Amino acid sequence: MIEEATQTARRLVEERYPQARAAWLGGSIARGAATATSDLDITVLLPGPPAPLRESIRYADWPVELFVHTEASLAHYCDKDRQRRQPSMMRLVGETIVLLDTDGSGARLQATGKAQLLAGPPPLPRQDIDMLRYKISDLLEDLIGANSNDVRTVVASVLWQEAATLLLTGANHWAGTGKGLLRELAAYDATHTTDYATALPAAVRAAADGNSAAMITAVDTILEPYGGRLFAGYHLSGD
After folding, report:
1. Is residue 28 within 8 Å of 5, Cβ to Cβ?
2. Which of 49, 84, 119 is the last residue of a domain?
3. CB-based burial of residue 132 (10 Å sphere; 0-12 exposed, 13-18 middle, 19+ buried)?
């Protein structure tokens, strides 16, 4: 699948963007984790307009996500991702198969993306840690007081994501959303000999079946290094 996807992606870039300086194929295909519904995540570097743009198309029976940038817009979005601690753009260039490299920018920017990923996100400010503690504590109370499995399911499905975000960003590790968050948890587990990437989804399933104990224990363990649950005394000033 990787070879077929690479050839298809390269042909698409050559047809649609003959002026491209570089292009990369990223996502699940580049990671070797493609499924039957995987798309082609293609980032294209142009010297100028029509970049920047994003477009979803179908090409040769493949769903395709196109991320078209100039070097300046690529740097802009990488910086935005760094501030939100979710390295989508960095991965779309740094963890890729180079499709096209006319002037050395393909290899150079790929190396830059890898270096940014290795450097990790900026430290999480204390006020952001406390906000997450407050949100997580509130969700825990909702879970403990839930009077139906429907409520437990809805609350637990949000709670695991907030708790995982605190775990990761509090440790200067990248976060994500959806399955991307689960991948980041697995990477964290690999370096910290933990099992959150399996324990938290299992706790969601248990809560949906009426048993919230595993979720409560896991979340309290995540909160503990930051001072535990937070409600009384939490204060947030407005602008």
Report:
1. no
2. 119
3. buried
The pTM for the full model equals 0.91
Q: Is the peptide bond preceding residue 47 cis, with omega within 30 degrees of 0?
A: no
DSSP characters for 68-121? EE-HHHHHHHHHHHHHHT--HHHHHHHSSEEEEESSSHHHHHHHHHHHHHHH-P
User: Are 115 and 130 within one domain?
Assistant: no
Task: State pLDDT tens for residues 27-80.
Answer: 989 988 877 778 999 999 999 999 999 999 999 999 999 999 999 999 999 999
* Residue of 105, 225, 94, 209 whose CA lies nearest to 148: 209
Neighbours of 32 (CB within 10 A): 8
Domain assignment present for 109: yes
Q: Are residues 89 and 59 in the same domain?
A: yes
Q: How far is CA 208 from CA 38, 164, 201, 213, 233, in A?
A: 29, 18, 11, 11, 32
Classified as helix, coil or strand, 10 is helix
Residues 148, 96 share a domain:
no
DSSP element (H, E) containing 62: strand 62-69
User: Which CATH number belongs to the domain containing residue 45 in this structure?
Assistant: 3.30.460.10
Q: Total domain count for the chain?
A: 2
210: left (phi over 0), alpha (psi -120 to 50) or beta: left
How many angstroms separate the CA atoms of 39 and 5, rounded? 9
Q: Residue 40 forms beta bridges with which residues?
A: 64
